[in-house]
Amino acid sequence: MKIMVINPNSSQHMTHHLDEVLQQIKDADTQLTVCCPEGGPMAIESAYDEAMCLSGLLPLVKKAETEGYDAVILACFSDPGLEQAREIVNILVCGIQEIAVHVAAMMGAKFSILTLNAERVPSKQKDIYRYKLERGLASVRPIGLSVAQSDEDPDLARARIKAVAKTCAEEDGAEVVVLGCAGMAGYAEEVTRELGLVVIDPSSVALKVTEALVKTGIKPSKRGLYAYPPSFIREGKV
User: Fold this and answer.
1) Would the pTM of this model clear 0.90, i.e. be above it?
2) How far apart are CA 168 and CA 21, in angstroms?
3) Which residue in 182, 154, 220, 215 sits closest to 34, CA to CA?
């Protein structure tokens, strides 16, 4: 199978980091391409950044379908462009946040999300309500780092993740912790080992779930929510 992982920001460093982590865990028969748009924001840390990345992101999704990919994974914990991407192609499109929080809700009674900065806490809470998973949410706590810092300073990121995850367990009752940024890829195993929590790396979990969905032939329905846009049909883009 062929899977394209798109880092929606334009950071080559983060894209390379994701590639290194995911190539190690992919199935042997998976052809994995990890890429990012050439333009757009270097980090996605706000709703504005999410909107600004779409002009580079959506053409890559369409390119994946044209080039015969079986699935696309959007590797940003905000899942920017997920609904729009599902409208314009007839292949599987997955978002790392959507997959990670649903898996987290299955793995324990309460889960917490580690986000980067305090300003993003309300956004993550809103997303959980949208997914109807609010009864399982113990907390959303920031680790106090930027996207760039979480990717470029592994030692600092690990220290912050461990400290905040411990607080989530001891003060909020979390049994599962979700790492709320693609830049945290590769940190879950160490935190799990040291704290005894279930820690979900959203990019890694999303890859394995996506591989399973491709093998079972499941993809978004085109009958309603993810139907092709009327403009696509009129312009013959389908």
Assistant:
1) yes
2) 26
3) 182
